[in-house]
Amino acid sequence: MSTEFMKPRRRPLRWLWLAAGGVSLLLGVVGAFLPLLPTVPFVLLAAFCFSRGSERCERWLLEHPTLGPPVRQWREQRAVPLRAKRIAWSMMALSSVLAAWWMPSPWRWVPGLCCAAVALWLWRLPNAVTQPPG
Predict the structure, then answer these.
(1) SS in 3 state form for 37-68?
(2) Exposed, middle or buried, 72 (CB in 10 Å: 0-12/13-18/19+)?
(3) CA distance 109 to 107
(4) Are 81 and 45 contacting, i.e. CB atoms less than 8 angstroms apart?
(5) Residue from 44, 50, 41 nearest 22 by CA
(6) N- or C-end of the chain: fewer Cβ atoms within 10 A?
(7) Residue 46 to residue 15: CA distance in whole angstroms
């Protein structure tokens, strides 16, 4: 197959990855302020999507002073910092309790089940080892 034939298929897929990365990053940033959304998993997903859709966006995310370190630690060690895990667990537990209190009966346990699945995934991951600068 010629490469010209493959280009039209790859371009729309690139924009799909870029859009998915943007939505994931937005959810991660919103998750920093809302207890129900965990920040780190969405930022990791954004980095994954950007790696397939935009080198520029991926580089920006990796070099970001706040969002970059967890992504770099994940890529280097396949680990999440213990502090990030603790914050995520606390916020997800709090939001699950609030959702169970305020949501209507058939739906009140859905956020808690989703948060429990994410918490279990985080718990199984190793803790990131911070390396001294230099």
Answers:
(1) CCHHHHHHHHHHHHHHHCHHHHHHHHHCCCCH
(2) middle
(3) 6
(4) no
(5) 50
(6) C
(7) 13
Q: What separation in angstroms does the CA of 12 have from each of 54, 65, 103?
A: 12, 31, 39
Task: For tokens 């990053």, name the residue.
Answer: 25
Q: What is the total residue count of the chain?
A: 134
Asked if residues 43 and 31 have their Cβ atoms less than 8 Å apart, the reply is no
State pLDDT tens for residues 37-95.
778 889 999 999 999 999 999 999 999 999 999 899 999 999 888 888 898 888 889 88
Tokens 């959810």, residue located: 27
In order, the DSSP letters of 6-42 are HHHHHHHHHHHHHHHHHHHHHHHHHHTTSTTS-HHHH
pTM, to two decimals: 0.72
